[in-house]
Design goal:
The chain is built from 6 helices and 7 strands; from the N terminus they run H-H-H-E-E-H-E-H-E-E-H-E-E. By secondary structure, the protein is of the alpha+beta class. Strand 1 and strand 2 form a beta hairpin.
């Protein structure tokens, strides 16, 4: 019978979770607190001409900035002229970019993906090192503002 071995602790210690990448040093708004946003006047709902089927949601500027903050260092990418799945793109990017650290890829629909990097130097490499080609198609890379 073959014994299972654990990964070296240095490998596990060097890994950064996607949650940590996204949140950085900030703590997330808890689900419990999110129910109070209307009570705290951080979110306001209006209806177009009183029609409850056409709501308009207004978010406090501070709350909006807090919600956007985790993504301030992300990149938005899209493979031009071809649709590609998450797993295939993830594998191709690892081979194409050859980064020092790791990255997390998130599919945000319509062929767009968000990328969060472990290292700032890898992010800078991707931004300035192009043009990038994946499956003979250009990869559009843009910063998230």
């Amino acid at each position: 019978m073959m014994a299972l071995t654990q990964e070296p602790s240095s490998f596990q210690e060097g890994r950064i979770s996607f949650k940590d990448k996204v949140l950085g040093n900030r703590t997330p708004l808890s689900v419990k607190d999110s129910g109070h946003l209307l009570e705290w006047n951080l979110v306001r709902i209006e209806y177009d001409n009183g029609n409850r089927l056409l709501p308009r949601i207004h978010i406090d500027d501070g709350l909006f900035n807090d919600l956007c903050y985790p993504w301030h260092n992300s990149l938005i990418i899209k493979l031009l002229g071809r649709n590609i799945g998450y797993y295939q793109l993830n594998t191709r990017l690892k081979g194409t970019w050859k980064l020092t650290g790791g990255f997390e890829l998130m599919d945000v629909d319509n062929g767009f993906f968000m990328v969060k990097f472990d290292l700032e130097e890898d992010r800078a490499k991707v931004i300035s090192g192009g043009p990038w080609m994946v499956l003979d198609h250009y990869l559009a890379v843009s910063q998230w503002f």
